[in-house]
Amino acid sequence: MAKIDILDSTLRDGAQGEGVSYSVQDKIHICQALDKLGVDFIEAGNPGSNPKDYEFFQEIQKINFENSKICAFGSTRRKEISCQHDSNIQSLLAAGTDYIVIFGKSWTFQVTDIIKTSLEENLKMIQDSCQYLKDNGKHVFYDAEHFFTGYEDNKEYAMKTLKAAVDGGAEVLCLCETRGGSMVSQVQEAVRDVVKTFSSKVKIGIHTHNDCGLAVANSLVAVEEGALHVQGVLLGFGERTGNANLSTIIPVLQEKMGYECIPKAHLKLLTSVCKEVAEISNLSLNPQMPFVGSYAFAHKAGMHIDAVLKNPSAYEHISPDLVGNSRVFLMSEVAGRSMIIEKIRKFFPHVKKTDAVVEEICDKVKELENQGFQFEGADGSFELMVRKLVGKYQPFFKLHYYQTNGSNPRPEEGVNSCAQIKVEVDGQIEITAGEGDGPVNALDIALRKALERFYPLVSKIRLVDYKVRVLDGKSATASKVRVIIESTDGEISWTTIGVSSDVIEASWIALSDSFEYKLIHDIEKRYQKII
User: Fold this and answer.
1) Which residues contact 172 (CB under 8 A, 6 or more apart)?
2) For residue 181, is pLDDT > 60?
């Protein structure tokens, strides 16, 4: 089984994505998560680009990693400047990493029109930089930027740039599909040529972008042609349409194509590590992402569900356990009784198909979905509904009232609404208020304050996503709306739903369900530990 080296660029290429910004501590946590997964290399940023990256490289040297090696990233020396006097090259040495990824130009247009130097000087810049870093004891990976475009435009020169890197002592030639516009056949042909020419001396790598939706496919075909080093971003995000998605590439290479990427026992950590990185990145994990998305093994149609219950291979190409994910049966009016039974058994394992409550639950699902509820995306609310119908529900608080109002102009940054709430817990009354950026945010803050005195664990609840959908556009502002809230406590995530013609009331229904779901599960977890 051939070994494929995996280099993750979440902290460098991924950080170029819109809305992504990491603190030094964020970057350290992501490195630790990737090390836990078992990736070989972590490209952690350019130490010469900003003070934050410089600080990171100082801090990361204090941490020991079991599986991953940290790489600094930067460009070749600038034109007509020696490596000894090039500040970027010197910052790469100062980063203190054993491995350095350095990029240079492969496309003649980039050389003559962008960095405005001669083709010959560019070759010297590549070779000199690789040689200098190697002479200073570093392992050098060379990223051939715009390689596939350069190969199409001037194959001879593009290959010369690779030779310059090899002559300078680079250990890996990573071919970068920088614009994301190359077709699979183009990547296949070029990689085949490079492997034939250089693979006896160095490893060949691939680094692709997703502008045509082909980043994963181009990475896989490169491996088929002999590439042994794959670069990407764990969750695929990054500049423009993103990078090659390693959470897809790793299981495909390892389970479908017979290569070794990460330790086999670590593959089951893939989903949890992806969730961890998404959380640190303050991004929602795309539910339809292959292997690790919450819908990756989700089934809705009654016939599909029935078949999967008999034999999962009927509609699943791998077991979700393999990548640490789980099978999901989506609630809807097209779901059959078998699916509802399976879903109920997750929290009430002794229920039988013939139990009268099953029919009652089926009828309730259809009734509520007719009103606009959609339980396929709200497992938390579905579980609470079932608990109420089977008599396994005890309310944690009673609402007396809530009030919200808005203020414009804003009295201060991040505040334009306030909420007041009165709740009762075991006969004790709590009245609190909260200010927030919108009425729902204010209501969330007020409810959290009211309950923390009785249930301190609610402080761990964080809203990850908030969606509102108008269900009947014909009724204009009197339309019903559906609110879906995704919440997390840092360990698990759950989704709840509310429907009303009042968006605040719909939000309250989803919000209160979210808090009750968390409280129920915390109490049951403590009870299980006791027994």
Assistant:
1) 5, 140, 141, 142, 202, 203, 204, 205, 229
2) yes
